[in-house]
Design a protein that fits this description.
2 copies of one chain form a homodimer.
Chain A: H1 13-36, H2 40-52, E1 55-56, H3 57-64, H4 68-80, E2 84-88, E3 96-100, H5 102-123, H6 128-146
Antiparallel strand pairs in A: 1-3, 2-3
Helix pairs in contact in A: 1-5, 2-4, 2-5, 3-4
Chain A binds a DNA duplex through residues 39, 56-58, 61, 67-73, 75-76, 92-96.
Amino acid sequence: MTEKRDFDLQHFLPYLLNRAAEASSLDFQRYYKARYGMQRTEWRVVFHLGRYGDLTAKEICTRASIHKTKVSRAVAALEKRRFLTRQPFQDDRRHELLSLTKAGKAAFDDLVKEAQRFDETLMGAFNVTERDILRRCLRHIIDAGQGA
Amino acid sequence: MTEKRDFDLQHFLPYLLNRAAEASSLDFQRYYKARYGMQRTEWRVVFHLGRYGDLTAKEICTRASIHKTKVSRAVAALEKRRFLTRQPFQDDRRHELLSLTKAGKAAFDDLVKEAQRFDETLMGAFNVTERDILRRCLRHIIDAGQGA
DNA sequence: TGATATTGGTTGCATTTGTAACTATCAATT
DNA sequence: AATTGATAGTTACAAATGCAACCAATATCA
């Protein structure tokens, strides 16, 4: 057992993860904010629609583990700025299918390119084994937390 | 170069980091919130004081990369609940040295024990090599972001 | 059919946060 | 000493967030 005095915040995984998350997001965040006036949840919504096709708000909530109020507001904001449109189902009018507009798709394309660039810069510091382990560990942590 | 269609959010490092950070923090967060009514910044301040000895607010800001207003409010809250005290310098009264009270130290001791337990649970899923690489990669990402 | 529960989504309110402007103290320059 | 410029820390206001209550549409089942 590690002694209390030896317990360093620099070794505490949640702390490291939080700081790394902040650090790694900063530049990219600045980009989509400056360029499209988007916030993180909005970018995530755009990403899900661009990558996985038209979805309902609920599906985005589930896939991305984002609370429905956050998604609701993000969708409203994106709709107002004409990045997406809603289309209610005929058979169940509670659902609304969200689709990116042309502008939304263009933003998605651009942001994906930018994201890839960021990812390559970040990952560039690591070799293949490290990248692989890093991704696998993170994935595992995410999935472990999912149940709770 | 990866194609745009292949670019999966599940491989985008900032996204993985953010989700892993959230997932890994949740349980611990609940603990210090329920037990001491603390928020994350407050816990971090307590931790820094407990681990590294008395510091000024500024020093905590620098070490932990937290904005001074956040630290200021956390310190005020902790002082009110008597987890710490302030003591202005004689030679420069702009600085205030922060020290944990007995209650603050007790909370720190308890939280460190709890943090260790959480860390072991999280890390328990990985072998020594993986742990090492994980920590090193995270450290690197944090330090790389630091300059910007 | 009608009463109740569930589900997708929104809204209102209290709390948290970020930004910028502010106070107070000290340092440097004249 | 007086002016200017940093620096530590606080505060005020706007924006973002979380939570709970809410509405409308559907499902369930007496």
